[in-house]
Amino acid sequence: MSNITGKVVVITGASSGIGESTAKLLAEQGAKVVLGARRSDRIDAVVREISASGGKAIGLATDVTKRAEVEALIQGAVEGFGRVDVLINNAGIMPIAPIEALKVDEWDRQIDVNIKGLLYGVAAALPHMQKQKSGHIINMASVFGIKMFAPGGTVYCATKAAVRALTEGLRMELHSQNIRCTMISPGAIATELSESSSDEATRKNLREFMKMAIPASAIARAIAYTIEQPAEVEVDEMVIRPTVQDF
After folding, report:
1. What's the pLDDT score for residue 202?
2. CB 3.0-4.6 Å disulfide test: which of 31, 172, 219, 230 passes with 26?
3. Does residue 3 form part of some domain?
């Protein structure tokens, strides 16, 4: 039996890409998955697909920038499956553009989704994990949290560097309570993320960059690996890139 079997896993940004792929893989391995994302129609379709394959899944429309909706997502997991074993903070956006373009609204949105949305997830799930005396928080960072790229990536890289700092801080504060923390830093992955920029030149460059991308299932398998480890084993950080990627 896999250590994943029976675990209740909440995933944000689960309507496509890494979140969707992870939900399907974990459900196949016996997890009970709770999917959150803004696109309720897409969430419903993923839940139906998992259920049709014999898995257990529920979905709730969730905008991670709205704390009440994140709390409702966690409460939905507790009401539906009785507990929360794993929180995967996967929701993220990457509307990159040169800093001189002064896309301040997009800067704010990146901070709201990539940083505050993650913290809202922690705030909602942590009390349940503390009550259970167990849990696992998995945060999606990026290779761009390790290495800056410019022009264009200044704000996005800053938000992912913040995820790195937050995850290590959480680990230090929570390990004594039997709550594991993991950071996953993907490189070029085939998702919708690269199309989120409003800057046409940036989108063109990203499309070229993404020609090397590996499928989202590569990250899903990495996430599954961290969850399936015995309770006394914590995988703190994983960086997953295409073999051909040089940074």
Report:
1. 72
2. 31
3. no
Report phi then psi at 37, rounded to 5. Answer: -170, 165
Catalytic residue check, 156: yes
Give domain status of residue 245, yes or no.
no
Q: Give me the residue label for tokens 């990536």.
A: 153
Confidence (pTM): 0.95
Catalytic residue among 81, 107, 144, 156: 156
Q: What is the mean pLDDT of each run of 10 residues along the chain (247 residues)?
A: 90 96 98 96 96 97 98 98 98 92 95 98 98 97 92 93 98 97 94 70 75 94 97 96 90
What's the total number of domains in the chain?
A: 1
Is residue 243 in a domain?
no
Which CATH number does the domain housing residue 174 bear? 3.40.50.720
